[in-house]
């Protein structure tokens, strides 16, 4: 099945590109084109209409994400696999939003690329386990936030803004004891340790999600 899939590759580092191509050819994958920058990669995709494009996320002229965006905008069905050094969650989120099929870390590329291609060929996405771990922790945080009541979210937002229990009680017209009870419930729902400032630290780190 893997042999039937047409594949193009692109990377602006010649040695990395050669290493990838040599490895894939050795494994009998069907490489039909190869590019040294983003523009070449996109041109190969539009000209050859490959099943899969394995491209570096950072290249001259066009990044891997920009290529994926153009493919999505123009209705190109080539499945994009990004190879990257980046573990940042926001880049991963962008990749997800663009329906990218694969996200492989360069440090594990030769170990994972064969499995990645076979998984993507079957119509399923593949992401390096380390990236999935990051995503998992992100999802856990978001799910935990969904479990909070509107009142608890208000209190958490005020905590993130450095408000004391006394100030929160005054602002929300509730008792000091009620604020303490809410804090205790939030800590339990977020599965935080009952340590001084654990809630404040969490609230600060996730402040953008509380807006």
In brief, what are we looking at here?
With 211 residues, the protein is α/β, with parallel strands linked by helices. It contains 10 helices and 6 strands, in the order βαβαβαβαβαβααααα.
Name some characteristics of this structure.
55% helix, elongated, 211 residues, Rossmann fold, 6 strands, alpha/beta
Can you give a write-up of this model?
Strands 2-1-3-4-5-6 form a six-stranded parallel β-sheet, sandwiched between helices. It is built from ten helices and six strands. It is elongated. The protein has helices at 14-26, 38-48, 64-73, 89-97, 109-121, 129-146, 150-160, 165-172, 176-189, 198-205; strands at 6-10, 30-35, 52-56, 79-84, 102-105, 126-127. With 211 residues, the protein is of the alpha/beta class. It starts with 5 loop residues before the first strand and ends in a 6-residue tail after the last helix. The mean pLDDT is 85. The protein has two domains: 2-135, Rossmann fold (3-Layer(aba) Sandwich); 142-210, Orthogonal Bundle (Arc Repressor Mutant, subunit A). Helix 7 crosses helix 9 (176-189), helix 7 packs across helix 10 (198-205) and helix 8 crosses helix 9 (176-189).
């Amino acid at each position: 099945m893997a042999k039937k899939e047409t594949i193009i590759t692109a990377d602006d580092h010649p040695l990395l590109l050669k290493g990838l191509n040599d490895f894939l050819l050795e494994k009998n994958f069907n490489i039909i084109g190869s590019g040294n920058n983003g523009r070449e990669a996109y041109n190969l995709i539009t000209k050859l209409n490959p099943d899969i494009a394995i491209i570096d996320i950072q290249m001259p002229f066009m990044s891997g994400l920009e290529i994926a965006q153009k493919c999505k905008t123009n209705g190109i069905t080539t499945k994009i696999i990004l190879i990257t050094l980046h573990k940042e969650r926001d880049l991963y989120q962008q990749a997800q939003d663009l329906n990218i099929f694969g996200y492989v870390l360069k440090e594990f590329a030769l170990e994972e690329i064969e499995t990645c291609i076979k998984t993507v060929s079957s119509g399923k996405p593949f992401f390096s386990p380390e990236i999935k771990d990051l995503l998992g922790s992100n999802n856990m945080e978001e799910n935990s936030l969904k479990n909070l009541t509107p009142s608890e979210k208000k209190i958490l937002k005020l905590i993130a803004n450095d408000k004391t229990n006394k100030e929160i009680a005054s602002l929300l017209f509730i008792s000091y004891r009620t604020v303490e009870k809410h804090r205790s419930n939030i800590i339990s729902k977020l599965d935080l340790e009952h340590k001084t400032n654990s809630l404040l630290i969490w609230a600060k780190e996730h402040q953008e999600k509380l807006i």
